[in-house]
Amino acid sequence: VKVALIRRGGSFPVHTDTDPSTGRSLSVTIYLTEGRKEADAGELRVYEFPFPPRDIAPVLGRMVLFSSCHLLHRVMPSLAEERYCLSLMFYGVQDHFPSLPVDIPGLDSELGARVMKQKRTLGHLIYSEECVRSI
What we know:
Elements: E1 2-7, E2 12-15, E3 24-31, E4 44-47, E5 54-56, E6 63-67, E7 72-75, E8 82-91, H1 109-117, H2 119-126, H3 128-134
Antiparallel strand pairs: 1-8, 2-7, 3-6, 3-8, 4-5, 4-7
């Protein structure tokens, strides 16, 4: 369990929460900031390879669940004075997450499984410019 405070201008670079060797499998983030305005920014940007990045607003009470090992994500710069969230990580078997996020017609399932095992590396390569900018 971790409570995070991000002050004005704060952010987190592109990352995954852990690697498969730790046994952690599920990350949960719950947003705790009251009175958030859209202009406050500080969105969670997720990189759901092979899809384009998507931003999730840190709205009070919103809960976001994702794979600790596989989902590249970052926190965009916050313009709010303070932004709070609660983060939890759960241990479990990674096999509970689908190897492919969608059924891709014509994609050989064995090839798809091999590609998705490398999606952390592929994601860093595909989103390399944004990874560098986020540091």
